[in-house]
Amino acid sequence: MMTVLDAPAIWLRDNCSCAECKHPDNGQKLFNIGDLADGIRVDETHEQDGEVHVRFAPDGHASVFDSAWLRRWLPEASEAPTDPRAEDAKQIWDVSDLGPLPEASWESYQRDPAVKAAALEAVVRTGFVVLRGVETTPRRVLDVAATFGFVRTTNYGDLFDVRIEPNPINLAFTGLPITPHTDNPYRDPVPTLQILHCLSNAAPGGDSGFVDGFKAAEVLRTESPDAFDILSGTEVTFRFVSEDTELSATRSMIDVDPYGRVREVRFNNRSLQPVRLRPEDTERFYVAYRAFAEVINRPEHQVVFRMQPGDCVIFDNIRLLHARTGFEGEAGERHLQGCYADLDGLESTLAVLRRAR
Amino acid sequence: MMTVLDAPAIWLRDNCSCAECKHPDNGQKLFNIGDLADGIRVDETHEQDGEVHVRFAPDGHASVFDSAWLRRWLPEASEAPTDPRAEDAKQIWDVSDLGPLPEASWESYQRDPAVKAAALEAVVRTGFVVLRGVETTPRRVLDVAATFGFVRTTNYGDLFDVRIEPNPINLAFTGLPITPHTDNPYRDPVPTLQILHCLSNAAPGGDSGFVDGFKAAEVLRTESPDAFDILSGTEVTFRFVSEDTELSATRSMIDVDPYGRVREVRFNNRSLQPVRLRPEDTERFYVAYRAFAEVINRPEHQVVFRMQPGDCVIFDNIRLLHARTGFEGEAGERHLQGCYADLDGLESTLAVLRRAR
């Protein structure tokens, strides 16, 4: 256990919470890091009644730290700070260890904050949740999004309809099978959440699938470390063009943080543009890209389920890949409505729910 | 100049645009990378009437490439692909080379697509534009955002008022000076654009300032490469808490792409949480952080201007830092309205405008 004396003086001084240093109402810092004197050091310290009193030199500033706060926040022993978005904070899964689909009834989700918290927690930890029994009313998906965050409006509108269309601007709007992919990698920032609400699903086929992209990346890193390094170290361009829209984003398929932890996955063969790398890099890139695709498409990685009318899935679009089998539109209607939202709003709602418990 | 024969066969095969490989209407790819045979090679090729015909082995697939398309897309000689978001695609500036503020009259922006394109181009290249003469009607800022993209709704609502408030949840809502910072680094994804519309500015003080964060990062990299490496290689946590909201994001202050190019900057001393690094890393981090702050706060980096009623600035919130001097609310009203939006929508609008020219 570290003690206050092990903490660097500049760290302690920067975290002073007196009314001069932090706004008493909103907790925002009132000085700039450059305002502190050079060579800050601890001049004197003593503990009293669960508080640590520190006097600094050369500025003579006096700070009082709550001991419990210090225990929580003192510099830690690991190199990489905790990040709830990074792979090591997630419950990575394949079909064998996923267990039953994380789900909740919409009725109890709305009524019981504990059910709601567990559902949102599933999105954060497992990557998705299925809400059951959401009224099959058009545009209801927007109400679901409003329970935890804010809709991200895009060129598709506030919501989009997934059904067979006569002149589809996207293969999603056909009956063709769609292999595992993340949505909108041509957008930057990419929408971090997608919500899909099933209004009808009477067509033969059209089953849904999810793959944990973080699991696939983990398997790739184990089996083909070179392929992992190439995909995390190479940027490619994704693009979407329609009459009124021209979106393009240049990012890596596997996004790692400075500590090498997987943080985001982008995978969408439909919108990937011709890669523009040196010829030798192109060859290596394709070997890696094919290896990742092979891992993603292994049956043990894809959980397959059938959305029933009233089902609504909320899923992490920078981690999970989603898929659907092909379907015959003429034999019955299949109609989903979807919208995008962002993880930060969901995480905030979850944190506030946890406060109350 | 590369020729088609220099391009890797797998690259050519993957970019076939026949109706079997790409949806004729929407251009989306119809096969998966794993569907291609192993060991793809070019079996035969000939050029005719500005088109290159290629037959592949072992699949026997025949492709026809437009020569102009090939010249545009053939693998290139540089390691790093072009990315319009990365520092090398920007016009990096300090006060001495910024020149006059990029600006446009709101009237001509709405009437003349060339004026609008130039204004949006300034946001992409320089990081901001000032629109002059926007009606000082409440909520008009949302109409400005709608001309190029989609508002990002947050816990602050679709828009927020910047003026003195009795119980401010954020220092922005006081008369205190605010040093250069990016907004909402506690959000992930962070809003990439901010729009601020001045309704009144009669208070003494309250001048506005911008710093090009990419320039500051460039200077830091030149003067203190270690500091640059530490800030781009260390994640810190930003946080915002209010009664109904609890947002937290763990990211680096300088975000570089896999090629080391600066792509995003986050800088906000008010919401930075206690860093939780090993004690020795903490000391090094603070040296780097203070060095970056010192560079950012140099007068030669900050352009200062006064917003007049009717001025509306659109700026890149993952590149520019904004600031304001303190003001005396009792001597006159200062009232801005702001909202967030995203660069991808703006870039799309600009790309579509360019098509028409």
From TrEMBL, chains A, B:
Swiss-Prot/TrEMBL GO biological process terms: carnitine biosynthetic process
Alphabetical UniProt keywords: Dioxygenase, Iron, Metal-binding, Oxidoreductase
Residue ranges occupied by any Gamma-butyrobetaine hydroxylase-like N-terminal domain in the UniProt entry: 7-71
Stored InterPro entries: AlphaKG_dependent_hydroxylases (IPR050411), GBBH-like_N (IPR010376), GBBH-like_N_sf (IPR038492), TauD-like_sf (IPR042098), TauD/TfdA-like (IPR003819)
Cofactor(s) needed for function: L-ascorbate; Fe(2+)
All copies of domain TauD/TfdA-like, residue ranges: 108-340
Keyword Amino-acid biosynthesis: no
Entry annotated with the keyword Hydrolase: no
Cited PANTHER family: GAMMA-BUTYROBETAINE HYDROXYLASE-RELATED, OXIDOREDUCTASE AIM17-RELATED
Family membership: Belongs to the gamma-BBH/TMLD family.
Name of the protein this chain belongs to: Gamma-butyrobetaine dioxygenase
Organism: Luteipulveratus mongoliensis
Upper taxonomic lineage: Bacteria, Bacillati, Actinomycetota, Actinomycetes, Micrococcales
